[in-house]
Design a protein that fits this description.
2 domains; single chain; five-stranded parallel sheet; Rossmann fold; alpha/beta; Arc Repressor Mutant, subunit A; four-stranded antiparallel sheet
């Protein structure tokens, strides 16, 4: 999943970015509210982590702008403002969660999982289609009861497909979700990773689950897509 971190404490920003990246997230980071809005206008995120007290525009102002524009991306406030009134204001402003500094990193990860699965309409960390099952908490994938070993990028691609099963995803949508702004790979990277994933998820199994929709992109579903 692709996450945006807007936090003006540069050391903390770098630590969170590094830890989330190690967990398999694709992370963009910025240091003020105006920059956060610019990032959000240019990319699609699965979740946003916002500090409240930022320069140029504070987190509450950023969130208000997002919700006014109809952008429903899950937002977690990560802030030192710890009174009950602060929490109520943050949640009533449209945030999906509120975590006070200092915090345990494991709790931050759990809260990110919870708010993103809720936005995907899932009540647990389990995503499935046919006999393909992914557990995002244990980071495991099985098909027909057999465990499948995936690279970090393959896992992220499959998670994106599963979260959007039945929906056609264009190459641009997949690229925007799986790579941050620092990516400088080839233009056929999406096709390459789809090919890798098909070999592991579909080869030797029925029914085939990953389908190409000509001129549009890819879809994960049980039924065959007509060309």
């Amino acid at each position: 999943m692709r996450i945006l971190i807007a936090e003006d404490q540069k050391d903390l920003n770098r630590i969170i970015t590094k830890r989330l990246s190690a967990e398999g997230y694709y992370v963009d980071s910025c240091f003020d509210g105006e920059e956060a809005l610019s990032y959000i206008e240019m990319a699609e995120y699965d979740g946003i982590i916002l500090d409240i007290m930022m320069p140029k525009r504070d987190g509450l102002s950023v969130l208000h702008s997002l919700r006014e524009k109809g952008i429903g991306t899950p937002v977690l406030f990560l802030t030192a403002r710890d009174t009950v009134e602060d929490r109520v204001l943050g949640l009533d402003s449209g945030a999906d969660d509120y975590l006070v500094k200092p915090f345990a990193f494991d709790e931050l990860i759990a809260r990110i999982r919870a708010m993103t699965r809720k936005s995907a309409g899932n009540s647990s960390n389990i995503f499935s289609v046919a006999d393909l099952v992914m557990d995002t908490a244990s980071h495991t994938v099985t098909r027909g009861g057999r465990e499948i070993a995936l690279s970090a990028k393959e896992f992220s691609l499959l998670e994106y497909l599963l979260r959007n099963k039945g929906h056609v995803l264009s190459r641009t949508m997949i690229e925007n979700n799986l790579w941050n702004f620092d990516y400088s790979g080839g233009t056929n990277a999406v096709d390459v990773y789809i090919r890798y994933l098909r070999k592991k998820v579909d080869d030797g199994f029925e029914p085939k689950l990953i389908h190409t929709v000509r001129g549009c992109g890819y879809v994960l579903k049980e039924n065959q897509v007509l060309p």
